[in-house]
């Protein structure tokens, strides 16, 4: 167990924004929520799942909806209490700990804010090792864990509970309700015992996010024998896909998602080239000079060429200079069940999944 304070939150938000693969919402908004909660209620205890008993109840807390909308709506301090009270009342059990369901700007931060305001510890684990746009897209689905009952609340106080026949139906019904509630809600699903979290969760994700954030912040102080770019790729284990200037951004909010494409014109050693990155909240496919170099479930991240700060999809702007980065995904996503759940063909991309390290050979 260790404590998460304000300086830790800064690093976690930065690293999680990278792992969010362009999605998960604006890290600045999430960071403000987490810092405000810690200032008001005290630091949060971060624990390993092995510190819990098998039957302890762990509750994920997340925002569902289009990230751009959350920047306008925010999350109130009472929403967490009402939501967790409803969970405890439904199960008739005491809630032991909070956990993030994904790594991403907002959804790495909301659990910290919730844990602080509820006086509960947060478990160093999630269900993705990155961010994905749909509720069923978690490692717990691969493990056969049910997402329902799902409980949600909006900023107006509307609350709901749903039980469905499978995890995809949680996504379908929640997305419709989310749209009716103004585009985003705070929710909890995949309420689990610690033994289930231990078996199927992506462990150490908060620590990983913090380490990445710390490395990005200190990138100007990299070893003398390396350039900042070389240090970034060495530390992250990522692959350089393209460096360019944003020439166009096509974006629309539809059905509770941000859909779109960013078009890049090459700069530096990529001058004369072009690239496109398609996204649905998260980046899904990177095409460079007509060749696909990375697809979901591997992570496709855009970072600032000077600071290496991640650029989420809702912050893409004309003229911004970015480096397109590919990161290998968590190993469960490369299984048959994982690819069926989050592979390129699920999102309508006409290509099979090939690991980013294979696509980038040579």
UniProtKB/TrEMBL annotation:
All residue ranges annotated as the S-Me-THD-like C-terminal domain in the record: 166-356
Pfam families: S-Me-THD_C, S-Me-THD_N
SUPFAM superfamilies from the UniProt entry: CV3147-like (SSF160991)
Domain annotation S-Me-THD N-terminal: ranges: 8-163
InterPro entries in the record: S-Me-THD-like_C (IPR048350), S-Me-THD_C_sf (IPR024071), S-Me-THD_N (IPR010318), S-Me-THD_N_sf (IPR027479)
Name recorded for this polypeptide: DUF917 domain-containing protein
Species the sequence originates in: Slackia isoflavoniconvertens
């Amino acid at each position: 167990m260790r404590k998460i304070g304000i300086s830790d939150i800064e690093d976690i938000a930065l690293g999680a924004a990278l792992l969010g693969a362009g999605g998960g919402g604006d890290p600045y908004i999430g960071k403000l929520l987490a810092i405000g909660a810690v200032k008001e209620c005290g630091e949060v205890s971060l624990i390993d799942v092995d510190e819990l008993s098998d039957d302890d109840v762990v509750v994920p807390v997340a925002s569902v909806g289009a990230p751009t909308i959350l920047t306008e709506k925010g999350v109130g301090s009472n929403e967490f209490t009402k939501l967790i009270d409803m969970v405890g009342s439904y199960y008739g059990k005491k809630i032991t700990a909070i956990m993030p369901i994904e790594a991403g700007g907002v959804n790495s931060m909301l659990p910290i804010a919730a844990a602080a305001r509820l006086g509960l510890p947060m478990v160093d684990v999630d269900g993705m090792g990155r961010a994905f746009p749909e509720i069923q897209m978690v490692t717990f689905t691969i493990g056969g864990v049910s997402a329902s009952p799902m409980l949600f609340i909006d900023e107006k106080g509307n609350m709901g509970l749903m039980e469905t026949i499978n995890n995809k139906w949680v996504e379908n019904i929640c997305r419709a309700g989310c749209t009716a509630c103004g585009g985003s809600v705070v929710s909890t699903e995949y309420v689990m015992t610690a033994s289930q979290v231990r078996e199927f969760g992506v462990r150490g994700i908060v620590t990983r996010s913090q380490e990445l954030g710390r490395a990005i912040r200190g990138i100007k102080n990299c070893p003398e024998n390396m350039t900042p770019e070389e240090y970034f790729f060495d530390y992250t284990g990522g692959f350089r896909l393209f460096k360019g200037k944003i020439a166009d951004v096509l974006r629309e909010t539809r059905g509770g998602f941000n859909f779109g494409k960013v078009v890049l014109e090459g700069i530096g050693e990529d001058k004369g080239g072009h690239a496109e990155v398609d996204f649905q909240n998260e980046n899904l496919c990177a095409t460079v000079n007509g060749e696909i170099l990375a697809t979901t479930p591997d992570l496709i991240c855009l970072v600032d060429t000077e600071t290496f700060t991640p650029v989420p999809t809702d912050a893409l702007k004309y003229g911004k200079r970015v480096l397109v980065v590919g990161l290998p995904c968590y190993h469960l996503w490369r299984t048959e069940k994982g690819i069926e759940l989050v592979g390129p063909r699920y999102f309508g991309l006409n290509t099979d999944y090939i690991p980013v390290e294979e696509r980038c050979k040579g």
